[in-house]
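Task: sequence design from structure.
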């Protein structure tokens, strides 16, 4: 295929040898299958800010830091340089999150290079060596749904213990991939919107939404999952400093009675409605 303009610099630098095909195009990036010698990788080309449709950007960028004080001042003022710095920080956030999570044992693609808004990383594959499918493209038995749901809850637990909340987790950015042992299981992708669990005021709401998205998807195949409350249980343990990667979880949570934050509830309802609209649009685009 014709080499996309944004991948030309990787060819010129010798980081890749050829572009095989486009793998997917999402709301924040387009992903290509590329070759590097005998290895097949994927190249994630981030879209420009005006081309992205990712919602509620302010929630995700809250408390993101830059070590350069000049950049920080410019980002706060919203100058052109500041907007460019904020864009670079947004793009590099995924690289940072992937490295952090891989070190914590979370199943994510290994990042290799990040150059000119392009992330070169591991291509996750299935048992036949083809690009791993998204959960949304797979049908599950009840037993497999329960097994993969349990595996994902453990992955989310490892992420939270590492101080990271995905922020947009759903069946569209979880792949069913082979691991090094030849076993099929869920792998988490698409992390530019990941937030710091301790430093973002919206982290608890995002975690609950992430876990509920996973629950609602697998409940289609295993209805007994529909009443589980793993998200609330995880956040309660994390907030109390009691959460470890191997902490036993029950999926049962009885919250203490407290005053109702009506504004927060209305925001969550609006976010859920917007997310459902995006889900329906994604389904229509795959038909």
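Answer:
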């Amino acid at each position: 295929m014709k080499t996309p303009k944004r991948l030309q610099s990787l060819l010129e630098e010798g980081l890749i040898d050829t572009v095989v095909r486009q793998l997917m195009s999402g709301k924040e990036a387009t992903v290509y299958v590329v070759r590097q010698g005998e290895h097949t990788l994927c190249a994630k080309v981030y879209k420009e800010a005006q081309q992205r449709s990712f919602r509620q950007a302010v929630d995700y960028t809250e408390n993101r830091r830059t070590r350069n004080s000049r950049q920080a001042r410019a980002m706060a003022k919203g100058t052109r340089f500041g907007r460019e710095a904020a864009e670079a920080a947004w793009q590099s956030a995924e690289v940072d999150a992937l490295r952090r999570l891989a070190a914590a044992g979370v199943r994510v693609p290994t990042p290799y290079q990040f150059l000119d808004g392009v992330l070169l990383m591991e291509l996750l594959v299935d048992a036949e060596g083809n690009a791993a499918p998204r959960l949304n493209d797979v049908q599950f038995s009840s037993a497999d749904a329960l097994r993969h749901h349990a595996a994902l809850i453990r992955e989310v637990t490892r992420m939270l213990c590492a101080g990271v909340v995905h922020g947009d987790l759903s069946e569209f950015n979880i792949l069913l991939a082979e691991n090094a042992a030849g076993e099929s299981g869920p792998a988490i992708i698409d992390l530019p919107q990941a937030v710091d669990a301790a430093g973002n005021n919206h982290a608890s709401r995002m975690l609950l939404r992430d876990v509920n998205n996973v629950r609602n998807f697998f409940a289609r195949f295993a209805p007994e999952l529909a009443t589980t409350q793993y998200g609330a249980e995880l956040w309660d343990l994390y907030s109390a400093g009691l959460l470890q990667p191997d902490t036993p979880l029950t999926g049962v949570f009885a919250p203490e009675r407290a005053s109702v934050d009506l504004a927060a509830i209305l925001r969550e309802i609006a976010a859920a409605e917007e997310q459902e609209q995006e889900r329906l649009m994604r389904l229509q685009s795959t038909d």
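The first helix runs from residue 8 to 12.
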